[in-house]
Design brief:
Layout lengths: L1 E5 L10 H10 L4 E4 L16 H11 L4 E7 L6 H15 L3 E5 L18 H20 L2 E4 L6 E5 L12 E4 L3 H10 L2 E4 L11 H21 L8 E5 L11 H14 L3 E5 L11 H15 L2
Parallel strand pairs: 1-2, 1-10, 2-3, 3-4, 4-7, 7-8, 8-9, 9-10
Antiparallel strand pairs: 5-6
Amino acid sequence: MRLSTVILPVRRWHEGGRDEWSRAEELGFHAAYTYDHLSWRTFRDGPWFGAIPTLTAAAGATTRLRLGTLVTSPNFRHPVTLAKELISLDDISGGRVTLGIGAGGTGFDAVVLGQEPWSPRERADRFAEFVTLLDRLLTQDAVTAEGTYYSAVEARDIPGCVQRPRLPFAVAATGPRGLRLAAALGQAWVTTGDPKLFESGTAEESLEAVRGQIGRLGQACAEIGRDAAGLEKILLSGFTPGRPLDSFDAFVDFAGRHFELGITEIVVHAPIPDSDFAMDPALFERIATEGLAQLSR
């Protein structure tokens, strides 16, 4: 069982940003992630900093904490340039990086470069091609590939990742194609639950939805002869019915029930006042320092 946090990049580095990352390490979190967007929802009209530079700075502010994106998508990235940035970040951090990666959504990031919104089929096609090429770029010194959407011509990525054969992928997916991609190339799988249940579903319905997702992931692994037990299963909290962060006991119950399903890592958002992620800082710190101990009793 692991407990991690996600720190949204909304604070200037020297005005509290650095302190959040170093504090996450002090609190004993397994990992600290950040969103990889150019802006996001209700934060769109306020400060929002880039994921890779933020994680690079966080690598210098910490020594043990794993770092990563939750999640990166093809919306505004290309595998060739992303691979170079990830290899550099993995080197700077001493091999502490996990790449959370997903197909992306239809919001601001999807059209910010002037492109037309992608259809669901094109988005799935792009995601599969993106992850497959990125896997090659991070494991081979030189790559030439011609795809429908993404290509590389003698792309050099020397010396490669500190982590071998490459840094781990945490693939966010719930549909059949995405789950097959997670089974084939992921070292971890990421879910936020079933988004259709967030507004009007119940906690029990959400648990059943996650149970079903884990079952389908297991089937995707079985199809290629992989043991699903070797695939980490990450739940990014905050998008399921109920209010598991209203109290310590509520969190322990929420986490325990998901660990019983097979989730191996739960991620909680670091508090942001006056936002959807507002939370009593004392409760957040208690969850970080006592939550897993309570579950193991």
